């Protein structure tokens, strides 16, 4: 069994490397469930076709739009809840849980994606619920991969917008405590995309200039 689990983890790592895994922040709230003792957190990570501002890059704002239909073929069958995308506090909920407590539910609606976490009453689950309840943690992030070949990028005078047309897999939903400005860590991959794009454009400009000089000097 450990060998099978390691193989699965290796396959997921390869998928994340091949397609790039992206993260997006979402507001999270704790539900008041009375005397049931349930530890329920809810959030809406995606509203389809709505621009979501990620960060500022140079003199332009960077947005991401997840288009309607992007989740039509997405794999979110086995998604854990984590803390800072790690396992240091265990896994207080998962989509594959066989019991209501400990279950992460991801629901795709026509206009949005909702998540509901019924956390296990472990020390990690209780701590996370308390931190959200008292406002120590107000945001969570979710990690996903997309079909890069289907992505569309639109650059305007004041903004750059990434249009995500096909989500391949959701990897985890995670509480984050990266401080007052978590965007540096959360959106590092998207910043890397822009750096690569800028380098490609610079190289094209350089090659075009060399070509022009070559023509003029013949």
User: DSSP helix count?
Assistant: 4
Uncertain segments:
12-19
Q: Find the count of extended strands (DSSP E, 2+ residues).
A: 11
What kind of oligomer do you see? single chain
Structural class of the secondary structure composition?
alpha+beta
Distance, first to last CA: 68 Å
Global mean pLDDT:
79
Radius of gyration: 20 Å
So what's the overall shape? Answer: elongated
How many strands, which pairing sense, and closed or not: the largest β-sheet? 7 strands, mixed
- Beta fraction: 25-35%
Helical amount: 25-40%
Q: How are strands sequenced across the largest beta sheet?
A: 5-11-8-1-2-7-6
Tell me the count of domains. 1
Can you write the helix and strand succession as a string?
A: HEEEEEEEHEEEEHH
Task: Set down the secondary structure blueprint.
Blueprint: H1 2-19, E1 21-30, E2 39-47, E3 52-57, E4 60-66, E5 81-83, E6 103-108, E7 112-119, H2 123-133, E8 139-146, E9 152-155, E10 159-164, E11 167-175, H3 183-186, H4 188-216
Parallel strand pairs: 4-10, 5-11
Antiparallel strand pairs: 1-2, 1-8, 2-7, 3-4, 6-7, 8-11, 9-10
């Amino acid at each position: 069994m450990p060998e099978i689990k390691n193989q699965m983890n290796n396959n997921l790592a390869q998928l994340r490397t091949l397609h790039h895994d992206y993260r997006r922040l979402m507001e999270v709230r704790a539900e008041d469930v009375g005397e049931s003792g349930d530890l329920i957190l809810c959030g809406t990570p995606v509203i389809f076709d709505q621009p979501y501002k990620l960060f500022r890059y140079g003199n332009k704002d960077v947005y991401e739009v997840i288009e309607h239909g992007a989740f039509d073929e997405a794999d979110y069958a086995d998604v854990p809840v984590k803390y800072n995308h790690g396992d240091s506090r265990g896994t207080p909920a998962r989509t594959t849980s066989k019991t209501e407590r400990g279950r992460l539910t991801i629901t795709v609606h026509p206009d949005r994606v909702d998540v509901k976490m019924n956390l296990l009453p472990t020390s990690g689950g209780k701590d996370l619920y308390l931190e959200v309840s008292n406002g120590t943690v107000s945001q969570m992030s979710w990690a996903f991969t997309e079909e890069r070949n289907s992505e569309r990028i639109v650059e305007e005078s004041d903004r750059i917008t990434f249009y995500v047309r096909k989500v391949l897999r959701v990897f985890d939903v995670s509480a984050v405590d990266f401080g007052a400005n978590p965007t540096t860590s959360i959106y590092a991959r998207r910043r890397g995309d822009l750096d690569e794009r800028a380098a490609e454009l610079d190289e094209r400009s350089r090659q075009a200039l060399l070509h022009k000089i070559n023509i003029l000097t013949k």
